[in-house]
């Protein structure tokens, strides 16, 4: 049975003859409206940049010397709950594209549905992968049905802004680096057809790393093939031109920097080396898009995670990526060196009107005041859901945040191991309100040793979702616990309290009022500090001596912090402040410090030189 036999239409048929695309190619070179052209592009993700800064960041991109901006579309940024789609305010993709046109830029849109991007679940909503992660990114009827509905809502915003309609959209990517994931040709052809039948008439392309394995899985006959890599341009160019001798060489993602994981180094790349590699691409006659030109921030709980086959690797809140335009909009040394390369092809760009560094607040320090203990807070975040066995995040329809598990097992006398089976990702284990251990999925054994007296105890386990995996075969993996063992005996009869922190403001912490008056001796807590800000300006937030947790600025969830680094400060866009009094609220899981600091400079950790190659992915 084919996907069409199953009734899964790619999209509505269009009987009209579409106009020709703005971008074409001939004899191994790009043309734009029939004239010789190089795509000189940079990636900016609208979902990682506060909308009040979109125009500024696009202006900085123009000053870098590019002629095109490319952006992914994060499905789960727009449709957290199936059928409830939002394209307004921060999610107004159309407005971002319109601003790019006003800045004089062409636009490449990468609608996925999968995007990777170190973004939670690779951009797929958790409801799409819930219970059937293996059905994602293939021609499974359930997945195609969800994608079809999503494309029905999304693509009109893109189609009406195509160059053929007077807009700036000149290219649309088909899926994303599919060859490093799977080999379902039927699925890739379905995505291509779905785009076409919903009105995409501009240039379409696939993008994959330059290895035979990746190209065999990701390339489509009759569709342009672009590359993604961070080095060895000549090797990549040779491989692509062997396979597609008539096509221009296009590096659709040049990794001029890299992202960071908690507990690892802060990745940087020498500016001269990055510029030299870009120059090599251009000297080979190629086109290029910087990934990232401006990285932005994984605000809230949007950062994803990786798994290297041995260890789970959650991504930090910053997505600075050592980009030429820094997380706060500053123009770095890399900016100037890349600009010199681009101006050989795009000419001199206006820059005098731009400040090279953003204005920031005067450094301030405020005292943190504890308002409520960790367990007391979590117990009051909602009504408990009862189940004989532990439920997962997906079972209670919890996308991100924390899940509090509560049971009353009898602990035998003496020392006894308590094992968390299928832990994903990190757990704090409390007995009668006292922290008895912290367990990570990366630990050799997911257990703590408790001392019992043959009596019933209150066992509470706080499980944290540290970000859904965004790359590889573990995409769509669930979160939470599968079972708990006291020695070899299963624990049954659980209460669960879901804590969707990304849907909470500080006022929501503890509003439910459910309180069993049980002891809370946890070191973690909710605390707050207030600042007087004369003028809203950018700032960088530090939490000295606090352990691990989540921070809000006024009512906005800024993101995660963790003392293990490498990231030490969190970027606060000026738009999150107001003139006068401002409140910073933190929910710390482990240890509450005594103060909050607003700083004028970021600290992302000691630099660690990193060049990512296509065969390392």
Give a written overview of the molecule.
This protein has about 625 residues and is α+β, with helices and mostly antiparallel strands. Helix 9 runs parallel beside helix 10. It catalyses: Hydrolysis of terminal non-reducing beta-D-galactose residues in beta-D-galactosides. Its EC number is 3.2.1.23. GO terms for molecular function: beta-galactosidase activity. Keywords: Glycosidase, Hydrolase.
Kindly summarize this structure in a few lines.
Keywords: Glycosidase, Hydrolase. By secondary structure, this protein is an alpha+beta fold.
Keywords:
hydrolase, Jelly Rolls, beta-galactosidase activity, 617 residues, Gly_Hdrlase_35_cat, TIM Barrel, disordered N terminus, alpha+beta, globular
């Amino acid at each position: 049975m084919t996907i069409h036999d199953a009734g899964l239409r790619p999209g509505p048929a269009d009987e009209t003859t579409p106009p020709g695309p703005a971008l074409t190619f001939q004899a191994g070179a790009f043309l734009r409206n029939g004239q010789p052209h190089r795509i000189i592009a940079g990636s900016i993700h609208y979902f990682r940049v506060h909308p009040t800064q979109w125009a500024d960041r696009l202006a900085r991109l123009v000053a870098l010397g590019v002629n095109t901006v490319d952006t992914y579309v994060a499905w789960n940024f727009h449709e957290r709950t199936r059928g409830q789609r939002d394209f307004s305010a921060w999610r107004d993709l159309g407005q971002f594209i319109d601003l790019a046109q006003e800045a004089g830029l062409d636009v490449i849109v990468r609608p996925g549905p999968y995007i990777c991007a170190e973004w939670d679940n690779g951009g797929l909503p958790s409801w799409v992968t819930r219970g059937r992660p293996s059905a994602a990114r293939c021609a499974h009827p359930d997945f195609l049905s969800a994608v079809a509905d999503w494309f029905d809502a999304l693509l009109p915003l893109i189609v009406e802004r195509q160059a053929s309609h007077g807009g700036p959209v000149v290219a649309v990517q088909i899926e994303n680096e599919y060859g490093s994931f799977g080999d379902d040709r039927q699925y890739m052809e379905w995505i291509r057809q779905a785009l076409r039948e919903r009105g995409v008439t501009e240039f379409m392309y696939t993008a994959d790393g330059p290895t035979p394995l990746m190209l065999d899985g990701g390339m489509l006959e009759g569709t342009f093939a672009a590359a993604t890599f961070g080095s060895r341009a000549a090797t990549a160019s040779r491989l692509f031109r062997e396979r597609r001798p008539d096509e221009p060489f296009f590096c659709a993602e040049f990794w001029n920097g890299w992202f960071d994981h908690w507990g690892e180094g802060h990745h940087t790349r020498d500016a001269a080396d990055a510029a030299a590699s870009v120059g090599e691409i251009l000297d080979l006659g190629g086109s290029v898009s910087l990934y990232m030109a401006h990285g932005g921030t994984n605000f809230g709980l949007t950062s994803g995670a990786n798994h290297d086959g041995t260890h789970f690797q959650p991504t930090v809140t910053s997505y600075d990526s050592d980009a030429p335009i820094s997380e706060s909009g500053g123009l770095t040394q890399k900016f100037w060196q890349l600009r010199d390369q681009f101006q050989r092809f795009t000419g001199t760009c206006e820059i005098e009107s731009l400040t090279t560094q953003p204005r920031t607040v005067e450094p301030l320090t405020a005292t943190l005041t504890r308002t409520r203990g960790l367990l007391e807070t979590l117990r009051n975040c909602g009504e408990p859901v009862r189940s004989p066995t532990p439920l997962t995040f997906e079972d209670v329809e919890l996308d991100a945040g924390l899940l509090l598990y509560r049971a009353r097992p009898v602990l035998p006398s003496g020392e006894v191991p308590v094992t968390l089976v299928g832990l994903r990702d990190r757990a704090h284990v409390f007995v009668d309100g006292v922290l008895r251990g912290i367990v990570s999925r990366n630990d050799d054994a997911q257990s703590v040793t408790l001392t019992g007296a043959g009596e019933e105890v209150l066992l509470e386990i706080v499980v944290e979702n540290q970000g859904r995996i965004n790359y590889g075969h573990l995409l769509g993996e669930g979160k939470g616990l599968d079972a708990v063992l006291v020695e070899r005996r299963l624990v049954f009869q659980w209460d669960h309290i879901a804590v969707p922190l990304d849907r909470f403001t500080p006022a929501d912490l503890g509003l439910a009022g459910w309180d069993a008056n049980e002891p809370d001796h946890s070191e973690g807590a909710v605390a707050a500090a207030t600042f007087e800000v004369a003028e809203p300006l950018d700032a960088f937030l530090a939490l000295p001596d606090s352990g691990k947790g989540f921070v809000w600025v006024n009512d906005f969830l800024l993101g995660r912090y963790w003392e293990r680094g490498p990231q030490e400060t969190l970027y606060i866009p000026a738009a999150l402040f107001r003139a006068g009094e401002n409140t910073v609220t933190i929910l710390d899981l482990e240890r509450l410090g005594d103060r909050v600091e607003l700083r004028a400079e970021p600290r992302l950790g000691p630099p660690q030189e990193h060049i990512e190659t296509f065969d390392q992915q």
